[in-house]
Amino acid sequence: MSTAMPTTNLKDQGDQYLPLSPPLARICWFLSALLLWLFLSSCFDSVVVFNYSTVREPADLKTTTFRITEVRDRTPNFKVRFGDGETTWLSFPDQLGGDPKGGLKMPQITDDAGRQLKGCMATAKIRAVLSSFGRVNQVWDLDCPQAHIHYGPEAAASQITQHPKFDLAFNLLMATFLLCGAYLTGMVAHALGKKR
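Above: the chain sequence. Below: its structure as tokens.
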């Protein structure tokens, strides 16, 4: 007399999640949302930079005076103190998106110029630019009489006015890769979230 062995109900087993699928699905959804946000912010910043790079000197510049307390060749470039004691960071116009290595390098700020500008009372024309990371204060004209240094709009904005069309096309191409990554990560998250 044979005893029937219990059989596994394949249908019940198919309704179960694979081990760790729900947590992995949530991580993938988060990565997909992050990549999508990076795609949108990259597109926005690219268009903003392109619009500014085609203007020799923006009409909405505000003239102000401050003391430069710190100078760096990577953005943000200048830590300044205004007459009322307020301090902030200013930058020459750049690509807005930032650089994970610590800012975009501005070759117009040499080591010698950095030493001379530190402590200088300067007059500048600045504008507040809206980017995906908030407002960024950009210097489009900087004059430091005591150091005999003057950066006009051509020198100050040289990093965004050299190849504006190429920069726009390159940044939008990179943004396309981010969009593809967001889509693929979302597909993986959807697959992991399904019951097996």
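The chain is about 40% helix and 20% strand.
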